């Protein structure tokens, strides 16, 4: 479906980002993967993608919290791939605390990576996409981009910002062959969520699995976690010709969370 397309996925050395990269590769796209982690493990993932799917995969790292570095990263990715067709803004971090107790450095870091990096990456990718009259920008937002939860002020603010930025990007590029949409996952059992489950288990004296069930019961009516693979398949759809007239939308994959 995406044979010959060139894709960049931020925060793609593990979790949701890696699953999205795998699905794009499965459908024929060449890739730039990005993120932190063990160098040997990242190289194994990179070579594994090439071997399994017959595509070109390149690893580029950058401090996406820094505006200049985030923009330079996209420039390097365009040079490495020979262009850019698909940008998936996925990199993110989390911290939970009451507003009055929220550490300023944590607030700044979450806004920088979860929101500002999306802006800088998009701004750097758009000229190339507009020149070729084809591009797909896919922002990984969250159910928390549509609704709020306590103790997540920075994350909720950032993800609401991503949804707003998605709409502006879509409007500014409507009719130019470039679309921008946001995927809004509910609970996905990523390392970030696993930490929350572990903390809940400790605080409430529950087993890890009982804590996971309580987490789901509170928010996600399906009582099942969204899988990273499902999010990857959604990204493939948004990058396909079938979604050419979808732009400025939020695609909720949340087991009914935001239907309430």
Task: Describe the overall structure.
Helices cover 50% and strands 13% of the residues. The protein has 260 residues and is α/β, with parallel strands linked by helices. It has 2 domains: 6-186 and 226-254, NAD(P)-binding Rossmann-like Domain (Rossmann fold, 3-Layer(aba) Sandwich), CATH 3.40.50.720; 189-224, no CATH class. Strands 3-2-1-4-5-6-7 form a 7-stranded parallel β-sheet, sandwiched between helices. Helix 1 (15-26) packs across helix 8 (228-239) and helix 6 (191-204) packs across helix 7. The two termini are 35 Å apart. The relative contact order is 0.14.
CATH homology group of the largest domain: NAD(P)-binding Rossmann-like Domain
Number of domains: 2
- What would the average pLDDT be, to the nearest integer? 96
Shape descriptor reads globular
Share in β-strands:
5-15%
Return the CATH topology of the largest domain: Rossmann fold
Number of strands: 7
Strands of the widest sheet, in order across it, are 3-2-1-4-5-6-7
What is this entry, summarized?
The protein is α/β, with parallel strands linked by helices and about 260 residues long. The protein folds into two domains: about 5-185 and about 225-255, Rossmann fold, CATH 3.40.50; about 190-225, no CATH class.
Write the layout of secondary structure elements.
Layout: E1 6-9, H1 15-26, E2 30-33, H2 39-53, E3 57-59, H3 67-81, E4 86-89, H4 104-132, E5 135-140, H5 153-172, E6 178-185, H6 191-204, H7 208-219, H8 228-239, E7 250-253
Parallel strand pairs: 1-2, 1-4, 2-3, 4-5, 5-6, 6-7
């Amino acid at each position: 479906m995406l044979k010959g397309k060139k894709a960049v996925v931020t925060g793609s050395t593990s979790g949701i980002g890696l699953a999205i990269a795998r699905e794009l590769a499965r459908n024929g796209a060449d890739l730039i993967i990005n993120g932190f982690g063990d160098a040997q493990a990242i190289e194994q993932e990179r070579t594994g993608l090439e071997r399994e799917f017959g595509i070109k995969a390149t690893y580029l790292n950058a401090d996406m919290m820094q505006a200049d570095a985030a923009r330079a990263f996209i420039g390097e990715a365009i040079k490495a791939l020979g262009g850019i067709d698909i940008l998936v803004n996925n990199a993110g971090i989390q911290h939970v605390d009451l507003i009055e107790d929220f550490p300023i450095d944590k607030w700044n870091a979450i806004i920088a990576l979860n929101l500002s990096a999306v802006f800088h990456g998009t701004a750097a990718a758009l000229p190339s996409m507009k020149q070729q009259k084809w591009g797909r920008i896919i922002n990984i937002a969250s159910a928390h981009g549509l609704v709020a939860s306590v103790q997540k002020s920075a994350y909720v603010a950032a993800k609401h910002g991503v949804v707003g930025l998605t709409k502006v990007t879509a409007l500014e590029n409507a009719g130019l062959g470039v679309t921008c949409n946001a995927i809004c996952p509910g609970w996905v059992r990523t390392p970030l969520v696993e930490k929350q489950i572990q903390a809940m288990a400790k605080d409430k004296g529950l087993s890890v699995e009982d804590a996971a069930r309580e987490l789901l019961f509170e928010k996600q009516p399906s009582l099942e976690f969204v899988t990273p693979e499902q999010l990857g398949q959604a990204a493939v759809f948004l990058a396909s010709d079938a979604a050419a007239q979808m732009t400025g939308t939020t695609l909720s994959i949340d087991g009914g969370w935001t239907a309430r």
